[in-house]
# Entry
Amino acid sequence: MTALRTALERILASERILDRPIDRVAFASDASFYRLIPQAVVRPRSVPEIQGLFRLARNRGIPLCFRAAGTSLSGQAVTDGILVDLAQHWRGLAIEAGGTRVRVQPGVIGAVVNARLRPFGTRMGPDPASIATCMLGGILANNSSGMCCGVAQNAYHTVESLTMVLPDGSVVDSAAADADARFAAQSPQVVAGLLRLRDRVRADARLVARIRAKYLTKNTTGYGLNAFLDEATPARLLARLLIGSEGTLGFIAEAVLRTVPDLPAKSTALLLFASVHAAATAVPPLAASGAAALEIMDRAALRAVERQRGAPAALPGLPPGAAALLVEFHGRDDDHLVAVMGALPAALAGLDLLYAPTFTSDSAEQAALWAIRKGMFPSVGAVRARGTSVILEDIAVPVACLATCIADLQELFVRHGYDDAIIFGHAKDGNLHFVLSQAFAGAAEIARYRTFIEDVVALVVGRYDGALKAEHGTGRNMAPFVATEWGPDAYAVMRQLKHLLDPAGVLNPGVIINADPLAHVRDLKSLPLVASEVDACIECGYCEPRCPSRDLTTTPRQRIAVQRELSRLHAANDRDGHAALAADWGYAGLDTCATDGMCATACPVSIDTGALVKRLRGEGHNAVARLVAGAVARNLPSAEAVARTGMRLGHAVGGTVMRAAGAMVAGLTDLRLPRWSTSMPPAARPLPAGEPTATALAVYVPTCLTATLASGDGSGPQLADQVVALARRAGVPVHVPVDAAGWCCGMAFASKGYAVAAAQSCTQAVDRLWRWSREGTLPVVIDTASCTYTLRHDAPGLDDAHRERLARLRVIDLIEFVHDHLLPHLRLRPLPGAVVLHPTCSAVKLDLTAKLRAIAARCCAEAHIPASWGCCGFAGDRGLLLPELTAAATAAEAAEVRSRDWAGHYSCSRTCELGMEEATGRPYRSFIDLVMTASAP
# Structure
């Protein structure tokens, strides 16, 4: 045991100290291009534990870095000291004052806050593009803003109070009536120093004017000196200073934020111009007309997304110097929106547009337009040379200088050889982002980046007196240039502030205040090539909230980071380091991955880390395992019968005996066997026949789950029986083939890495579906969305002939079949009360959630999907093999479900129903059960 671990164990529980090689490597990267391997990762639960970590850091002189989501773009969430992970135990969230305020802890995801506020018609002020991933700790520590919030609604201007812990251990609640007295009693020297700095700043008229001018636009370079002008009392002054301080002054334990109205009525258009100058010239009149968002995009940015689905047809034909503005207006309702847009016609009349604008209020069309804007960053990431980093920087200049600044940046790109660079940004605020790819493989490349950044600094500060960081935080990348932007007097105040609050210099050293002029080109992250499935990863972390194992082992980003470190160690011939890291990879990296593909839905470049995991699992199988898998795939009807027999045996001898037998076999053979679950259903009864093919309007093919596992406790109607009966009730008869049992789409084999068996199984399935559907004449209804998804998008190992045959089949998921074909013909009597739904991952990927909710809403008084919904982690049999995965994945959703009584609990996959039953202790049934009840004669 290391001395550091021994010291940490005096502060917090051993299991919340992560210091294995795999843990340290997993947390060595944030979304930036910097990388530092921490000595340990800790997960405190309470303020006393935070105070203990501060004492340890001071006494040992070891750096301390707070990290929430790790989506920071400038290196402020990495350290070679102790990394304090807040994502797991700081998720407190409370809505106050009818939604006009929200109380949050630093581990709450921004989008979760907005989801909880939505029923009140409000939202947070900051609206960063990463809001579905980033957490309040980062939003506050970086003074985040975003698309529409400008300066007035950023984190600084919407914070009402903070509860803070300082490096000396003092705790300050700025909302307390006696906050200043308590603060002075705990930290008299800090209070005195803050007041001296306040008075010094206010006495310097030139500095006051400088500060006022700097904060008329977005600016997150350095510390928020405007706090010295906006607040007089110590506690409130401290609270303002901690906003945007990037974890270098203290710890924010809790925040109360004022919310802003969430205006639901929107009108959106993409305006196209022949030049950047024409687009920039349009910004002031459009802003004056009431536009809530004005997003500018140069021609290179538009070229990067012009082939994207939903992109306007005019984009490919735009002239070389063209530009666009994405314009959006917001209103309380349609009438208010019309009033807000009253001045728009006059504003448009004076613009030099290539095409007449078309404003839309259709949500799908709006989503497509915003997808163009949000696709800018990933577009470069997707096409960059493998092994290069993606750098996203942001600056702010006066709005009047937008056009010339864009031209100047484009000239810098040419001069330094950044041919793939693009520019976009929040034009209303003079806020420009530029994205480029950069290799850090050798001294020449590092020198190229260094000189480029120096030229950017000279341009932004020297020519435009702008902000080097508008909204992404100073971090490590711009720390050497804070004094350049602010000047010596302001920078001296910042240095004194840092020393006053953190005299030992242990809080995130190197961030914001850094005397090293080359700090921005040190500790750079290499991205070695490891696998085609994941080499495009930019380690942004957007995938992490979707990952079922995020609170148990590793996330997709971390799995990729570990693979890259294994590659580095192999290249360095470090056998001991490689072995130490690989020792925990099997469980943390492979076994606990649900391979549900949800990471790809959030990834800017659509990486499915599960695809890599499946391949690596396959490479680990021996010849015997592959032979067994192949035998099972060739004899699926028999395998299904054996599974049902096993279910009957288990219920006959009891769960205790089954669990004991499984433990004994595992102990003797070192094999991990499925655990007999307390909610394990009985074996399914034989499948119904349905209608003859001559009169059927569709062929219904129950999946292997339906054919194996009974619905509920087995005493009531089974899912297949209910589907046939419901179809008959709606006058849309379905046929169930007599030999429907014993088919598999191949997903079960593919997820375990048995590629050959998966191909065999899927090929047989396509042949049978072709025959059952009368060669594609009848649509095929599948009752498990994961199987539907596999057949539509991920059919494993098919040859060209079978792939062509599958393409001619009309595969319909049961949710679609009920919503589109049955529901219109059913007489429904909505049941009283509210029901809760758990959509499956595949239903989400198939975009069927809205239809599932609509079905339930027709059948009951209220249909609810928990705001904390996520993959249950059951993943076919993962929940039986690794019950801890499902327990971790469902913890938040289960708590939300248990917080109130429901008239029913429903899902759309039998295994997910089992997982949610285990997690909540509540019975989950198929949504078909709800429809049957509501449509009963």
In short: Residues 528-603 form one domain. Residues 443-463 form the longest helix (21 residues). The mean pLDDT is 93.
